[in-house]
Structures are given as C-alpha cells and as structure tokens.
Design a protein that fits this description.
Blueprint: H1 3-21, E1 48-51, E2 65-66, E3 69-73, E4 80-82, E5 85-93, E6 103-106, E7 114-116, E8 120-124, H2 126-129, E9 132-135, E10 149-156
Antiparallel strand pairs: 1-3, 2-9, 3-8, 4-7, 5-10, 6-9
C-alpha cells in the first residue's frame, strides 16, 4: 500500500470521527465526597426580677399586701420564655423570735409561659397574679416580729 493511500485512510478516519462526534469530545469524572462544618447555638441570659410594690405595715392577722414585680430581659439578644415565678420569704432582722413561719406568701400565677423580648420588661401586677404577703395571727405573742425586716427572693423558672 502506498504512503498516500495510508495517509488518505488516516485522514478519512479522522474526518469520519469528527463528523459523527460533532467535532467535540467530552470527558468527565464522576465522584462523591463529604465534608464537615460547625455552628453554634446561643444560650439563655439571666433575667432580672425587681419588686415594684412597697410592702410595709404588716400586722398579725392584718390584710395581705400585694406583691407587684417585673421581669427584665435587658441583656438578652433574643426572647426569653419564663414559665413561673416563685417567692421565698426570709426574716433578715428582728428584735426577737420572728421567722418566716410567721408569714404567708401567696405565690404568683403568671398565667403560663410568658415570652419576654430582647431588651424588654414584663410587669406582673398582683391583681393579675394573686401574689401577696401577710402576717399570720398565731394566737401567741408575736412582739418578736415588731419592726422586723423581711426579704423576698424571686426565682424564675
């Protein structure tokens, strides 16, 4: 076979490949892979409870004093949801034998979960929550409670 015939055969073969394949060749790889990333979740911030009513003049068997308070979410960057508030009473000073047992605390009912927005304050009025403090009439001398100082400690859940 002559050299021209060989060259013609090669050129013809290449031309046929180009015509049939559209002149473009495609190549690709198939693969799979995986990776990891990270994310963080914020945390709650502590809310602050402030008593907004003044309680004074409690006497044995006398009327209950309303306990009004507010819950502040001033440091939070998002809403905080509280489900309850409880009040503990302690006697911090007294002239005699006066204890928390000399007093009744009606716990507040805040009406279920309450969301307090970031930077917001939610007021709780005793008319709505029922929270109060009164001095029991224990049918004994309670002079030890005269001029006693009480501390109300609020716990939010």
């Amino acid at each position: 076979m002559s050299h021209n015939k060989k060259r013609f055969g090669v050129v013809a073969s290449m031309l046929a490949v180009l015509l049939l394949g559209g002149g473009v060749a495609f190549a690709y790889w198939t693969t799979s892979g995986s990776g990891t990333g990270t994310a963080t979740v914020g945390t709650d911030t502590h809310v602050k409870v402030t008593q907004t009513s003044t309680i004074s003049g409690l006497v044995p068997g006398g009327p209950a004093a309303d306990v009004d308070f507010q819950v502040e979410n001033l440091l939070g960057t998002g809403p905080e949801t509280i489900s309850g508030v409880s009040i503990a009473l302690t006697v911090t000073s007294s002239p005699g034998a006066c204890t928390a047992a000399d007093f009744d605390v009606v716990q507040p009912n805040i009406g279920g979960p309450v969301a307090i927005g970031a930077g917001a304050t939610q007021a709780f009025d005793a008319v709505d929550t029922g929270a109060s403090v009164s001095m029991k009439d224990r049918a004994v001398n309670q002079d030890g409670c005269k001029n006693a100082t009480l501390q109300l400690t609020y716990t939010v859940s």
